[in-house]
Design a protein that fits this description.
It is a single chain. By secondary structure, the chain is an all-alpha fold. It has one domain. The chain is 64% helix and 0% strand. The chain is built from 8 helices and no strands. Helix 5 crosses helix 7 and helix 6 packs antiparallel against helix 8.
């Protein structure tokens, strides 16, 4: 073998160079790694800009996916749904929370079963989450629908409807939160929080957290978040309709 330091040729069995005294075991890994790095260079590490571009492209494909050819009948149906939700949602937005218009609307009757189911679903997790589970249940159901439309069906317009429903639910729970101290809202069963002890969800939730005095502020925050999500749904859904209109099938 040839010593990698002094280039003196000697027997392969030597553990150190008989000329310069270097120990081969210490220098071989470095030499081998140098050879390896020169022969097989590692691929360059992706830059942050490239990684950001990949994420952006993935998000764009997920949120703005359009079929190559859109059936005009489907497009017309989606446009009708959009118009209904736009008019109905605008009524929710311009009506003050204190009127409880949202709690007396038809959508409240749709949300209520998911609210009650949430109490049952979260019951194994203790009393606090059993009570909070009602609100979580009615928020999770539209969010699950949103994700199903977006990921499983690849239908961003359907997902925008799901987002509208999420926003409407945040508005729906606001009057309930706002009533945590007053206890005047008529609840399921035709009674108020004053009539039955420990019956009002948000009196219990905020009381447990020590936040009862913030009930009005939390309710307003929930209502405004619902409005923002609903407006975002309008923008998203409207933009998707414009993209689908450009890809409509002419049946030619």
């Amino acid at each position: 073998m040839i010593c990698p330091k002094c280039k003196f040729e000697q027997a392969d069995r030597n553990l150190e160079c008989i000329r310069c005294g270097i120990i081969f075991a210490k220098i071989r890994p470095s030499a081998e790694s140098t050879i390896t790095s020169e022969a097989d260079p590692l691929p360059p590490i992706a830059t942050n800009e490239a990684q950001h571009f990949d994420r952006f492209a993935w998000a764009k494909d997920l949120l703005l996916f359009v079929e190559p050819q859109v059936n005009p009948l489907f497009l017309a149906g989606r446009a009708i749904v959009y118009l209904i939700l736009l008019i109905w949602g605008w009524k929710f937005i311009v009506t003050p929370m204190e009127t409880n218009y949202v709690g007396e609307s038809f959508m409240h009757n749709i949300n209520l079963p998911f609210h009650e189911a949430g109490h049952i679903i979260f019951s194994p997790l203790g009393r606090f989450l059993t009570i909070l589970g009602g609100t979580l249940g009615q928020l999770l159901m539209p969010f699950i629908c949103l994700c199903a439309f977006l990921i499983k069906n690849r239908d961003p317009f359907g997902a925008s409807v799901g987002l509208w429903w999420v926003g409407q639910n945040f508005m729906d729970i606001a009057p309930y939160i706002n009533d945590a101290r007053a206890l005047e809202l008529v609840l399921l069963g035709g009674v108020t929080g004053k009539d039955v002890e420990d019956y009002h969800d948000w009196e219990n939730i905020l009381g447990t957290l020590g936040w009862l005095q913030y009930d009005h502020a939390i309710a307003q925050a929930s209502y405004r978040l619902g409005i923002l999500l609903m407006v975002a749904a309008f923008i998203w859904g409207g933009y998707m309709l414009s993209l689908q209109f450009k890809h409509r099938d002419s049946f030619s």
